[in-house]
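Key result, reporting period 2: structure in, sequence out.
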């Protein structure tokens, strides 16, 4: 197969993982077979590094993940942040102050290479425990390492209204993304996206965009899907993703990525 990809980049939640958050045996098997065929596999996710640890046994030798919408490169097996792309506290404080003026009930959290910093009013995903080393304190008191991803959520504004207001307030100072968590604005430093991080990682491997297949389901995947040589949307993807994708595969609950890779490997024989 002359046009076979050299690298597969895939989102996790809603794309590679089933709706219950699990990686099916079928998908695990085809990922291993894909790498055995000489095709690089990299996970590209909005999850912070700490949310990859629970998948360590499942991802096994797949090793590297691009996390936090491009903010971190994470060695899953070693549980180590290899590199990070964040913004300085002064920029974060300016954005926080402006968002508080626009949305007084907004609460914040910050994902950093060393862990989570969160305000007491910030709502946590009940499916993931707050780590013991997390810092609970006002976001204005941030210290230490730069922020990889700033999280913001309103207690009262409808989800879409808050996200629109957050994007208007932040402007071009940072990149606001949405990965599917209701009303959660995920804010990265300007220029930090899944696509930018994937482009850097692919460049390190000597792989150009035209040799990359990327799979996703939510608006934060759009830059990556546009950048890749072939952008795939799963059937359950957000309409914005389906509109820009080159191809559509079956849904995450139907192991759509696995079905696509199985077909690819058969055609390569």
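The corresponding designed sequence is given below.
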């Amino acid at each position: 197969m002359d046009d076979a990809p050299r690298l597969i980049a895939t989102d996790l939640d809603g794309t590679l993982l089933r709706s219950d958050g699990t990686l099916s045996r079928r998908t695990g098997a085809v990922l291993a077979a894909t790498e055995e065929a000489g095709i690089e596999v990299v996970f590209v996710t909005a999850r912070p590094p700490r949310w990859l640890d629970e998948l360590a046994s499942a991802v096994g030798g797949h090793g590297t993940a691009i996390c936090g919408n491009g903010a971190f490169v994470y060695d899953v097996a070693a549980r180590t942040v290899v590199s990070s792309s964040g913004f300085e506290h002064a920029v974060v404080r300016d954005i926080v102050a402006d968002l508080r003026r626009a949305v007084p009930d907004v609460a914040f959290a910050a994902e950093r290479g060393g862990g989570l910093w969160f305000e007491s009013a910030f709502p946590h995903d009940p499916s993931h425990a707050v780590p013991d080393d997390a810092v609970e304190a006002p976001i204005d008191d941030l210290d230490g390492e730069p922020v990889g991803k700033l999280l913001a959520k309103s207690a009262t504004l409808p989800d879409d209204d808050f996200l629109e207001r957050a994007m208007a307030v932040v402007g071009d100072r940072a990149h606001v993304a949405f990965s599917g968590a209701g009303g959660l604005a995920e804010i990265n430093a300007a220029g930090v996206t899944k696509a930018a991080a994937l482009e850097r990682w692919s460049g390190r491997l000597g792989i150009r965009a035209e040799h990359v297949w990327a799979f996703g389901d939510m608006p934060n995947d759009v830059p990556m899907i546009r950048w890749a040589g072939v952008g795939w949307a799963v059937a359950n993807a957000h309409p914005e993703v389906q509109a820009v994708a080159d191809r559509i595969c079956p849904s995450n609950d139907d192991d759509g990525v696995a079905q696509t890779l199985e077909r690819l490997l058969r055609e390569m024989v």
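The chain has two domains: 7-84+193-268, 89-189. The chain has a mean pLDDT of 90. This case is discussed further under Risks and Mitigation.
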